[in-house]
Amino acid sequence: MRNLWLFPLLFLFQASPGFAQLTFPEVDRETYRFYLNQEWDSLLTLGKEALKHDIDYFYLRVRMGTARYEKGQYILATEQYRKARNFNGADSYTNASLYYSLLASNRPSEAYALTATFPEELKKEVGFQRRILDLLSLELGYTLSDAYRKSDPRALMGPDSIYGQQDLYGDSYYGYLQGTLNVSKRVSLTVGYGYLNFRKRKLFQFTTAAQTRNPSFDYHLTQHEAHLGSSIRLVDGFRIEPAIHLVFGSSTNISAAYILQEEDYRIRQQDTSFINMVASLMLTKDFGILSAGLFGSWSNLNDRTQVQAGISLTYYPLGNLSFYGNTMLFALMESGNGRVIILQMLGVKVTKWLWAEGDFLFGNIANGNLGNGLIVYNNSDRVRFRAGGSLIFPLFRQLDLALVYQFFERESEIRFFVNGTDGTREVVVQQTRVMKYQTNSVFLGLKWKL
């Protein structure tokens, strides 16, 4: 019932072509009354109407920001407080309110950057402490693969029974440690180290002297990964984020060669190592409850060249973290072949102590990357789709626990050789087919906000 007084007033606004009844003294008087009485909905209704009629000033923005904050719409509150700072950037109440709104919107780096303009007294008032190390996170995970079970070592060859081979990815385990460093008020660095260990199996099938053989060899692929990223916070909500990700791998190269003199195949095993790189860049801009980004990357994973480019849109429909989502669309070009990949994520606050997220990725992300180069998928098997979910528990004010599950539908390539012709003579022709398999991954993550 507290909004009933607005009905006749808004009726007059709409009835009069000049809207002469809506004046600055009237807006200032009534919004201040609503502010004192904590009538936030009425304040916002009148405030938005005033803005439509070019009535805009410092105290109106401050009051609308406070109304948004008190309603729990922290992201919308930041927008109003930023507008207020355009009128008076030195006001302590506005600066402190914007600082608290950024923290409540899970934007600690922006809150940290804001303090560059704070006098020492205000820094003490909001409890700001300069920290070089701002964030630590640890992630541990294990992946179960059914590729070994799905494979059939006795059915690798083609119809001509010459030769066939398959390289399988088995179970794997993974660990990642990351820290965020504040270089300055507007620049932060992210430094990470990861370790990944795959169980692998190489299968062969060939026929010699009327005898079919099916040798197999188990080995491991290990990776050490280093990530260095930077976030440079510019004016008006712009951020530019360059990053580089290095992959140092070691494995065993297992191959079979036909020895004509022996009329048999000889298996060769050789230790091998590699260094791959992903260089990426992302530009983002905040628009109230929306954050839009453009990103691109270059990489040379698995001795191929990849170029990736796309767009990202993050949104908070309720103006806070109670419900949010991210939609990502990008193209991946590899060796002249292009793919389109779509990623959709939605998150919701279930209770005060639990957030839930779900995501679905459609497209072949093999030899691609996500998170501005932070996550690298250099598993060479083709990806059909990925689906997953997360449960996030804020254990304490500075410590979050996350449980993450991911399901992948993949394809393993089988190479085999058959007799053919090039038009003048008989030749051996390589052909391929695929075997579908699935992986299930579970990760445990800890994030410590210092």
Provide keyphrases for this structure:
450 residues, alpha+beta, Serine Threonine Protein Phosphatase 5, Tetratricopeptide repeat, Porin, 15-stranded antiparallel β-sheet, 9 helices, 21% helix, 55% strand, disordered N terminus
| CATH architecture assignment name of the largest domain | Beta Barrel
Give the C-level CATH assignment of the largest domain: Mainly Beta
Structural class: alpha+beta
Largest sheet: 15 strands, antiparallel
Radius of gyration using CA atoms only: 29 Å
Would you give the CATH topology of the largest domain?
Porin
Secondary-structure element series: HHHHHHHHEHEEEEEEEEEEEEEEEE
Strand-residue proportion: over 45%
Question: Gist?
Answer:
This protein has 450 residues and is of the alpha+beta class.
Would you write up a description of this structure?
The protein is an alpha+beta fold and about 450 residues long. It has helices at about 5-15, 25-35, 40-50, 60-70, 75-85, 90-105, 110-115, 120-125, 145-150, and strands spanning about 135-145, 165-180, 185-210, 210-215, 215-235, 240-260, 265-285, 290-300, 305-315, 325-335, 335-350, 355-360, 370, 375, 380-395, 400-420, 425-450. It starts with 5 loop residues before the first helix and ends with a strand. α2 (about 25-35) runs antiparallel to α3 (about 40-50), α2 runs parallel beside α4 (about 60-70) and α6 runs antiparallel to α7 (about 110-115). It has a 15-stranded antiparallel sheet that branches. A two-stranded antiparallel ribbon has the order 13-14. The protein is elongated and about 100 Å long. The chain has 2 domains: about 5-125, Serine Threonine Protein Phosphatase 5, Tetratricopeptide repeat; about 135-450, Porin (Beta Barrel), CATH 2.40.160.60. The chain is built from 9 helices and 17 strands. About 20% of the residues lie in helices and about 55% in strands.
